[in-house]
Design a protein that fits this description.
This protein has 294 residues and is of the alpha/beta class. It is 36% helix and 14% strand.
Length: 294
């Protein structure tokens, strides 16, 4: 089956993915495809965590992988995304992982008959990131219902924010956003950062996506850090058991100060670790469900 956005999955399916990811992490669930499954990773945007944790997940599952490079592909000759993906299907790949700069790129892939896993599209969705965030929260609190989450930063351009807010609210969490007015998204609850900070269980910071800005940010990085970044003084204002999350990569000393990245409340590198196990669960589900829900 395709895994394109979490909206397509029932709550029970999301919970099952998380349970399997936790089992993979604990070692109580083991799968080895013994090289009989081949997955192609097509990344049309730069990526470290998502790209290589998918590759590690594939390795742990015993899959063989094909790494696609746009610069040396026929895309440079004008080949369409559809024809590129259809080529991989034709040569016998069992599933494809795609990250693309275009929103909902998968709408162009209606006649592909192998599973597609969305590794991030434009400013819309990032299902594997949302799942690893949920896994991290589940391990920390043992539940979702009633938790309060504050997402701070470039909400407007963030596929992480858009994916997370939707699924978190479906799971019973209260989600608030904050940051500069220029990064505000009118679809989501916008609150005062300083007032909400001491009341929430999860503080999630977002990278300023300078590459997506149509014009330069209206304030300096230093001013942003002072107004909206998180530093040790703000950490002290948080609830005792509250945690800090960030999808990464992070701009050190902009949205997060150096001395906070690995402080006791930070779960940033745990998120990265959990990403491997979540992606293992996603790959297993995609490969084992023969229905293609284009």
């Amino acid at each position: 089956m395709n895994i394109l956005k979490l909206e397509d999955l029932k709550v029970e399916e999301i919970e099952e993915l998380l349970e399997n990811a936790i089992k993979f992490k604990k070692g109580s669930k083991k799968i080895d495809y013994n090289g009989k499954k081949v997955i192609a990773n097509l990344f049309f945007e730069p990526s470290t965590r998502t790209h290589y944790s998918f590759e590690m997940a594939e390795y742990k599952l015993g899959c063989k992988t094909i790494e696609f490079t746009e610069e040396t592909s026929s895309i440079k000759k004008g080949e369409s995304l559809y024809d590129t993906v259809k080529t991989f299907e034709s040569i016998g790949v069992d599933a494809i992982v795609i990250r693309h700069r275009e929103d909902e790129y998968y709408n162009k892939l209606k006649n592909i008959n192998i599973p597609i896993i969305n590794a991030g599209d434009g400013k819309k969705d990032h299902p594997s990131q949302s799942l690893l965030d949920l896994m991290t929260i589940k391990e920390e609190f043992g539940k979702f219902e009633g938790l309060k989450v504050l997402i701070i930063g470039d909400i407007k351009h963030s596929r992480v924010a858009h994916s997370n807010i939707k699924v978190m609210e479906r799971l019973g969490m209260e989600v608030y956003t904050s940051g500069p007015e220029e990064f505000k998204d009118e679809d989501f609850k916008f609150v005062n950062y300083e007032e909400m900070l001491p009341k929430v269980d999860v503080v999630m910071l977002l990278r300023i996506q300078f590459e997506r800005l149509e014009k330069e940010m209206s304030m300096t990085k230093e001013k942003y850090n002072n107004l909206y970044g998180i530093n040790i003084n703000r950490v002290k204002q948080m609830k005792e058991n509250a945690i800090i999350m960030h999808p990464a990569p992070f701009n050190r000393n902009v949205e997060i100060s150096d001395d906070v990245v690995e402080c006791e409340k930070s779960r940033i590198f745990k998120q990265m670790q959990n990403g491997v196990f979540v992606r293992m669960a996603m790959i297993e589900k995609a490969l084992n469900d023969n229905s293609i829900n284009n």
